[in-house]
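Ticket closed. Logging final result for MFS transporter.
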Amino acid sequence: MATLDTPADTAAPPQAEERTTLKAWFAVVSVAVGIFTLVTAEQLPIGLLTSVGSALQVSEGTAGLMVTVPGLVAALSAPLVPVVVGRMDRRYLLVGLMTVMAVANLVTVLAPNFGILLASRVLVGVTIGGFWAIAGGLAFRLVQPAAIPRATALIFGGVAAANVLGVPTGTLIGGLAGWRTAFAVLGVLAFAVLVALLVLLPKLPATKPVSVPELLAQFGNRGVRAGIIATALIVTGHLAAYTYVSPMLQQVSGVDEDLISLLLLGFGVAGIVGNFVAGAAVSKNLARTMTVIIVALAAAMLLFPVLGRSQAGGIALLVLWGLAFGGVSVSLQTWMLKYAPDSMEAASALWVSVFNLSIALGALVGGLVADNIELTTVAWIGGAVVLLTAATLPSLRLSGKAAQ
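Final structure:
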């Protein structure tokens, strides 16, 4: 019987290594880069709020809708796209969705006003939800059984890489060449990915189309339900504050605007370290790993208005923030994959929906607070919401023991 801290896959007998072709591994990499592109596209505005707002003459809170809108749309499209497309070959579905992403970024680059730009973000949301929901279980169809754990980690690594590298790199490009150039580069990357998917992916007919009853049945899985609660709280709290980390660093810590892109890149480097550390830790003790992440993430935000009032303090807390959030995706993904092995596409669709809904909610709450109360309050609220997750850990532990 598997428990929360002894993943089910560790109890399975070792399998004989079967050869996975090089083309199959390239296909896995193309899916991972696709995930990286989508998540980067969703969160890239975080590092460009000030420049976009100035260029299109909207407030930073209004510019935050660039994160809120695709998050809401992705939350809807994640469960709907798999149901609507039915038995459509997943290869052509993924290629089509990535084509929409390339077009959406082109519209963003050419947008003459904020309204047109926001419309392009709707297309981004459709692509994120549909692509991510389908891609979650593709490792099982692309590689041999013995290679599935590595392939799955690589695909989901695209999420972590986007969170810790995509936004800082995009911000750096935007700072050097303008925000439209940053989205143009993203559009070129999306086009390259769609070509790679078309060339490398085999035919992927739907073996088990997702249905509404199957989606609803996932809420009866205690492990899945607990993971969704944790996802909602952590992601909402993080995005409420992190969406406005750039203006906070400038206004609270006194950091020069020209240094923001480099600091966010440092956040990304810290996140990579956190991702690898958490990845090694979750297989040994998932509950303990999540506890450390929650406490560190909440502390970084709650302490920012107090200890972040100097450049040194702000930078130190940003590094802690990056370390903690770098481990979030791998921990939550491990949780969901563990407790829904037989309904991966359905559970993945629900998880993606909640993840993106939480991104939208966090950005929206942060925007309302930043515009109507005080900028530093977003850090208080974000940290408090993340800290609430600690109260769910006993029930998560209980759910884990009862899940198998």
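The chain has 20 helices and no strands. No further action required.
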